[in-house]
């Protein structure tokens, strides 16, 4: 089959019934890109199609031919106008349109000839879109005044289709015109050559103090792309000073010798550059700075300080400043010597800028309360230290107490040595200065305790060969004390220990002898009684009188035997 000419196709259209599908399909293309326009939404059966032709609406009802293709034939380009070199046919009879532009926004029609009597047209509406070439904020205001409607900036969206709609945002919150503090004016400019639109939006804004450091942006949305957002911008907002604050910059706690800096903070913008500092009756003017430094402060620096504006002295701020200090005085202090029995009441005087904390120790051991002594003892001797703290400040004082007195022996005891061959004598004493310990008998020193809290203990070993009275003597430069104890001879004690068991054996032997003698006596009496009874019975055979008499005697004899038997048992 040969490719049909345009005139032949026209003849066929005139001579047969033409059918046009109802409903208009819309295809969106991107500006400058290649657009594919489907024929019958891609549902064309090319095997049953004799001829496929694409045309477009030139306007005023005039069609313009683009290309035509017959079955088993190549595509024939028919256009000679602006579409020449821009159109071609793709699979399933789709029309490819390159370098899309706004003038391509029209109706393109696909005409399909199935047989000599069936011709169908599929019109497609083409829309070309283009996103803006970014968003740009220009014409920024140098500064904003509180409560005054001022042109803040202009936002421009260049070369788009359809025309961009610009939205203003403050801190990512959309701004809407309210006719008072916010005014937004938009304008549109269309390029005569490309037909693309440039949108401009001018924001007028009445700033508030809280808008300081606020971030402003503009954005736009497009049906083919995500929203576009401009770079953020900020503005300087000017307002007069309404409040002053006087700050003190120093370490955690201001103490004597430190330096402190006074800083006058104003809430105006721009901030004032000159201030007056009132220093306890003296006024110092500072320009191009908001600080004033005082070095080597003392307790006399404590007081109320103020700062004010040079151009408005009535606006001022004040602050009470305290320089912490701590002085202590312990009376008495140092080395203190007292006699036993005396009273001592140390007095700690504290001069400070605030509440203090006091702690006491004796020989580095913490005390529960301040030391007070109504009657001193030797055990009260020692190093007493007090520590006073106030914040970071710390002071210490101490007294070394020595309690002196005539020595006293508190205990003198003895005990037998573990081996039983000697005696141990123990003498315990109190006194100060340290007493010397002596004995009235020669002995071997076993142990002497350290001299602590006025106490000392000495232990000696002795082996007395006779009964003695031993004395322990303690002495120092203030006096002497003596105490005695009786000590028995070690030999005598050993003899008594050995003698005691012999006496006990003699007593035991005596008791056993008595018992044996009683038993022997009982046996003799019993034997005599038997002999007597035998003789008596022989006589009773002769006379009954003798028999009766014998019975009475027999009873007496039995009673006698029984009595002797009881004595033997005892």
The strand count comes to 40
Helix content: 10-25%
> How can the largest sheet be summarized?
8 strands, mixed
Overall form: elongated
CATH architecture name of the largest domain = Sandwich
CATH superfamily of the largest domain: Immunoglobulins
Q: How is the CATH topology of the largest domain named?
A: Immunoglobulin-like
Mean of all residue-level pLDDT scores: 83
List keywords for this structure.
membrane, glycoprotein, eight-stranded mixed β-sheet, 5 domains, 570 residues, Immunoglobulin-like, disulfide bond, disordered N terminus, Ig_sub2, alpha+beta, disordered C terminus, 15% helix, signal, seven-stranded mixed β-sheet
Description:
- With 570 residues, the chain is α+β, with helices and mostly antiparallel strands.
- The chain has five domains: 105 residues, Sandwich (Immunoglobulin-like); 105 residues, Immunoglobulins (Immunoglobulin-like); 77 residues, Sandwich (Immunoglobulin-like), CATH 2.60.40; 78 residues, Immunoglobulin-like (Sandwich); 82 residues, Sandwich (Immunoglobulin-like).
- The protein is built from three helices and 40 strands.
- Strands 29, 31, 32, 33, 34, 35, 37 and 38 form an eight-stranded mixed beta sheet that branches. Strands 1, 2, 4, 5, 6, 9 and 10 form a seven-stranded mixed beta sheet that branches.
- A hairpin with a 2-residue loop joins β33 and β34.
- The longest helix has 51 residues.
- The N terminus and C terminus are likely disordered.
């Amino acid at each position: 089959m040969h490719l049909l000419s345009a005139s032949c196709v026209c003849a066929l259209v005139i001579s047969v019934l033409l059918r046009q599908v109802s409903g208009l399909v819309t295809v969106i293309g991107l500006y400058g890109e290649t657009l594919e326009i489907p024929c019958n939404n891609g549902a064309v059966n090319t095997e049953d199609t004799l001829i496929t032709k694409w045309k477009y609406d030139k306007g005023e009802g005039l069609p313009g031919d683009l290309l035509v293709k017959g079955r088993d034939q190549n595509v024939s380009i028919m256009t000679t106008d602006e579409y020449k070199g821009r159109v071609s046919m793709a699979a399933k009879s789709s029309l490819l349109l390159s370098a899309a532009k706004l003038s391509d926004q029209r109706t393109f029609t696909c005409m399909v000839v199935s047989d000599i009597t069936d011709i169908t047209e599929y019109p497609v509406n083409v829309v070309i879109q283009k996103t803006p070439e970014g968003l740009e904020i220009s014409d920024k205001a140098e500064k904003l005044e509180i409560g005054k409607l001022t042109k803040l900036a202009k936002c421009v969206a260049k070369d788009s289709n359809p025309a961009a709609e610009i939205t203003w945002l403050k801190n990512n919150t959309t701004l809407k015109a309210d006719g008072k503090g916010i005014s937004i004016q938009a304008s549109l400019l269309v390029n005569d050559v490309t037909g693309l639109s440039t949108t401009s939006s001018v924001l007028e804004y009445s700033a508030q103090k809280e808008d300081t450091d606020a971030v402003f942006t503009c954005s736009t949305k497009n049906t083919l792309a995500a929203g576009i957002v401009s770079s953020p911008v900020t503005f300087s907002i000017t307002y007069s000073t309404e409040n002053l604050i006087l700050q003190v910059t120093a370490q955690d706690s201001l103490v004597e010798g430190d330096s402190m800096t006074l800083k006058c903070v104003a809430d105006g913008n721009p901030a004032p550059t000159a201030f007056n500092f009132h220093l306890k009756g003296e006024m110092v003017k500072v320009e191009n700075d908001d600080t004033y430094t005082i070095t080597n402060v003392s307790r006399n620096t404590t007081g109320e300080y103020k700062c004010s504006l040079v151009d408005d002295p009535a606006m001022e701020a004040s602050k009470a400043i305290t320089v912490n200090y701590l002085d202590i005085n312990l009376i008495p202090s140092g080395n203190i010597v007292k006699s036993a029995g005396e009273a001592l009441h140390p007095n700690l005087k504290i001069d400070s800028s605030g509440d203090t904390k006091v702690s006491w120790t004796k020989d580095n051991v913490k005390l529960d309360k301040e030391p007070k002594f109504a009657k001193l003892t030797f055990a009260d001797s020692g190093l007493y230290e007090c520590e006073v703290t106030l914040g970071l400040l710390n002071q210490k004082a101490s007294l070394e107490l020595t309690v002196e007195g005539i020595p006293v022996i508190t205990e003198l005891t003895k005990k037998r040595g573990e081996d039983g061959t000697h005696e141990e004598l123990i003498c315990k004493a109190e006194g100060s200065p340290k007493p010397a310990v002596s004995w009235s008998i020669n002995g071997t020193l076993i142990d002497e305790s350290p001299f602590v809290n006025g106490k000392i203990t000495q232990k000696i070993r002795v082996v007395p060969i006779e009964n003695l009275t031993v004395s322990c003597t303690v002495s120092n430069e203030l006096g002497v004390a003596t105490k005695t104890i009786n000590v028995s001879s070690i030999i005598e004690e050993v003899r008594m220990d050995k003698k005691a068991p012999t006496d006990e054996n003699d007593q035991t032997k005596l008791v056993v002898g008595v018992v044996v003698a009683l038993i022997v006596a009982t046996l003799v009496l019993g034997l005599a009684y038997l002999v007597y009874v035998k003789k008596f019975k022989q006589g009773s055979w002769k006379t009954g009188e003798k028999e009766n008499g014998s019975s009475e005697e027999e009873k007496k004899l039995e009673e006698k035997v029984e009595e002797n038997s009881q004595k033997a048992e005892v």
